[in-house]
């Protein structure tokens, strides 16, 4: 099975712009979670989508949003970029399911640099 | 909310030797999962091992094993016969089994260096 894929792998944006990151889960996985990794804050949970619905959300401002499509692919959007948004954004997929907890498998990440 | 603490920012071990990475966590929940992930320089997060809190038996995966002490809230990772390819950042992570409201909660990581 192909693993989790993320595009693009690298992005450079300027402050105030917006950006969209994409994640394709492992075939058959219905849950997609997003994480932000920075040297200062470490790995932080952004949100989780399951069956096209946001099921869980971390403590991030409303500038961070996402969506999931019927094929389970997910996108994450960050509007009005700030310098502090520079980070590695990781996507993880799992089988998901109501009340289920499954092992999350990660993609290679998207490195976002905000200038 | 739960917290995960990895008290060793960096560890070094000779190739072929055994090393243990420490992890403690704090939670009021009784049902949860614990994981060790490895992140090599490529930045790809790779699952190493998983432990269900309701299982008393410690998980093992080839050269990797854990020492899970639920009462002490401790979850250490032992790597036997260390190989150069084991060099990476290792993250301990917690996941509440009741729905993952906070997603995975990660520790700050331990940088493992393998000396040839």
Shape of chain A: globular
- Oligomeric description of these chains: heterodimer
- The number of helical elements of chain A comes to 0
Rg over CA atoms of chain B: 14 Å
Structural class determined from secondary elements of chain A: mainly beta
Question: What is the first-to-last residue Cα distance of chain A?
Answer: 37 Å
Contiguous low-pLDDT stretches of chain B (5 residues minimum) are none
Helix content of chain B: under 10%
Note the run of SSEs of chain A as H and E. EEEEEEEEEEE
The structural class of chain B is: mainly beta
Strand content of chain A: over 45%
Unreliable segments of 5+ consecutive residues of chain A: none
Q: Roughly how much helix do the residues of chain A carry, as a percent range?
A: under 10%
Return the string of H and E elements of chain B. EEEEEEEEEEEE
Q: What is the alpha-carbon Rg of chain A in Å?
A: 13 Å
What would the average pLDDT of chain A be, to the nearest integer? 93
Percentage of residues in DSSP E strands of chain B: over 45%
Short description:
Chain A is mostly beta strands. Helices cover 0% and strands 52% of the residues of chain A. Chain A is globular.
Q: What labels describe this entry?
A:
heterodimer; A: 115 residues; mainly beta; seven-stranded mixed β-sheet; four-stranded antiparallel β-sheet; 0% helix; globular; B: 116 residues; six-stranded mixed β-sheet
Overall description:
The complex is a heterodimer of chains A (115) and B (116). Helices cover 0% and strands 52% of the residues of chain A. Chain A has strands at residues 5-7, 10-13, 19-24, 31-38, 42-50, 53-57, 64-68, 74-78, 87-94, 105-106, 110-114. In chain A, strands 2, 4, 5, 6, 9, 10 and 11 form a seven-stranded mixed sheet that branches. Chain A has a four-stranded antiparallel sheet with strand order 1-3-8-7, with no helix packed on it. Chain A is globular, with a radius of gyration of 13 Å. Helices cover 0% and strands 52% of the residues of chain B. Chain B contains no helices and twelve strands. In chain B, the strands form three sheets. In chain B, strands 2, 5, 6, 10, 11 and 12 form a six-stranded mixed sheet that branches. A four-stranded antiparallel sheet of chain B has the order 3-9-8-7, with no helix packed on it. The N and C termini of chain B lie far apart (41 Å). The model of chain B has no long low-confidence stretch (mean pLDDT 94). The A-B interface holds A 33, 35, 42-43, 45-48, 55-56, 58, 88, 90, 92, 99, 101, 103-109, 111 and B 33, 35, 37, 42-47, 50, 91, 95-109.
């Amino acid at each position: 099975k192909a693993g989790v894929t993320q595009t693009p792998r690298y992005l450079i944006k300027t402050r105030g712009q917006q950006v969209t990151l994409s994640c394709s889960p492992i075939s058959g996985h219905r849950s997609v979670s997003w994480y932000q990794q920075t040297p200062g804050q470490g790995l932080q949970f952004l949100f989780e989508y399951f069956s096209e619905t946001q099921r869980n959300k971390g403590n991030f401002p409303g500038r961070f949003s996402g969506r999931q499509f019927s094929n389970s692919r997910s996108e994450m959007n960050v509007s009005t970029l700030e310098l502090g948004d520079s980070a590695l954004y990781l996507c993880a997929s799992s089988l998901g399911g109501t009340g289920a907890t499954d092992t999350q498998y990660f993609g290679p990440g998207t490195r976002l640099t905000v200038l | 909310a739960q917290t995960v603490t990895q008290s060793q920012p960096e560890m070094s071990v000779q190739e072929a030797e055994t090393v243990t990475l420490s992890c403690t966590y704090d939670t009021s929940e009784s049902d949860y999962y614990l994981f060790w992930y490895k992140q090599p320089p490529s930045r790809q997060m790779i699952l190493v091992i998983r432990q269900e809190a309701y299982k008393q038996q410690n998980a093992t995966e080839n050269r990797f094993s854990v020492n899970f002490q639920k009462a002490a809230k401790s979850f250490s990772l032992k790597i036997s016969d260390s190989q150069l390819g084991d060099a990476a950042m290792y993250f301990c992570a917690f996941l509440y089994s009741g729905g993952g409201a906070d997603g995975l909660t990660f520790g700050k990581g331990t940088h493992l260096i393998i000396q040839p």
